[in-house]
Amino acid sequence: MRGQISAEHARLGVLSVVMLGLVACGGPSSDRNAPLDARPAAAGGAAAAAHPAKVVSAEAKAALDAGNAAFRAKDYVAALTAFEKARTLAPDNAAPWFGIYMVAQARNDTKAADAALIEIRKRPD
User: What is the pTM of this model?
Assistant: First the structure.
């Protein structure tokens, strides 16, 4: 079934775009630099109390932002390089793996996409 996208892959692709957008934009709060558990409940504080957020360094966030920009420009080599850097800087975070997954999908590299999905499923956020 090469060339066809399964429903799961399509769902994860959409989810990855949403997740990367949230990471890149800093979330839906005016106090976006505050840890999630310090935000008001309406901005995600209650959920963060149940599941503490992993802190992503400024360098990891910059790498994710660079990967997102390169991906939008269809520069998949630069995007993959940036997402791999983010992966090393934030090894417990799923967002870099979503980026790697998106690049693999864009390049029709099903083996790399499947490997990224396995890593995404290992991480709760």
Answer: 0.60
